[in-house]
Amino acid sequence: MQIFPNGYMKYRLADRGNDLDDNGYAVSDTGFSGECRCTITVITDNRKGRYDDGQYRNASYSITCNMEDVSDTFNPTAVSLTHDNKGNLGVFQVQRVEYYNLTGTIEVWV
């Protein structure tokens, strides 16, 4: 299946150690083992969350890439997303990965 890429995904695989800080958030944009073109779809992206000194961002994305563009042992724990038009979207902890063998694609939810 042909995807229509609109960005890049750098990924950190599960065998690279702990990717989360003490609060359970994905660590900084270092230690990524691969990169591939992908289609980034926004599920939510807003800054409606508030706290005493400001606001926070609530964002989730669906990322689709071709199986041939990633390693055979693709099991990411964190991804760094860069959109072609919007620039760097950030580093996110992976929530779920689905493998679609019939279409040859992988979908990652963050």
Short précis:
This protein is mostly beta strands. The chain is built from no helices and seven strands.
Span of the ends, CA to CA: 22 Å
Structural classification:
mainly beta
Helix and strand element order:
EEEEEEE
Instruction: Kindly estimate the percentage of residues that lie in beta strands according to DSSP.
Output: over 45%
Largest sheet entry: 7 strands, antiparallel
Count, helices: 0
Describe the structure.
The chain is mainly beta. Helix content is 0%, strand content 57%. It contains no helices and 7 strands. The chain has strands at residues 7-13, 34-51, 54-66, 76-83, 87-93, 96-100, 105-109. A 7-stranded antiparallel beta sheet has the order 5-4-1-2-3-7-6, with no helix packed on it. The radius of gyration is 14 Å and the shape is globular. It starts with 6 loop residues before the first strand and ends with a strand. The model has no long low-confidence stretch (mean pLDDT 84).
